[in-house]
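ok so I'm stuck.
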Amino acid sequence: MNVVVTEYSDNWKREFSEESQKIKDIFGDELIDIHHIGSTSVPGLKAKPIIDMMPVVKDIEKVDRFNEQMERLGYECMGELGMEGRRYFRKGGDDRTHQVHVFQGDNKEHIIRHLAVRDYLRAHPDEANRYGNLKESLAKQFPKDIEAYMDGKDAFVKELERKALQGYNVGQG
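replied:
not stuck anymore, here's the structure
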């Protein structure tokens, strides 16, 4: 996978809206909510142009029933992919366009972590700018090595999560 970080695009909000509607249509009554997460959800933040979505569902086991419909939308169904209690879908192969991280509503730890980081970056443009510059630098340094790119931002992301979770109120954002 090529590692490309671009300037923020206003199109990302629209792309989330369009794709999330398709997922709402598939998940139907099983869906509690769907959130735009990750770097493309933070206005002004440089990011890999991949839309991250987090559907929250009533019963994570029932999500497996939607695999065929998700495949028809172009998604690969990856199961938990190393994170217990999640269902992960990706679209676009090596030129990934969307990632879907599905959690059950009572999986507060993962849901809150994603929302806290997003909301923290939205509220702290200076931190978002530092993060975007780090990602841009790592993408230039490791354009063909996603693992090295991820490793390079790991310490920053862990510290970001720690700050974001400090005093985060469930229900905000």
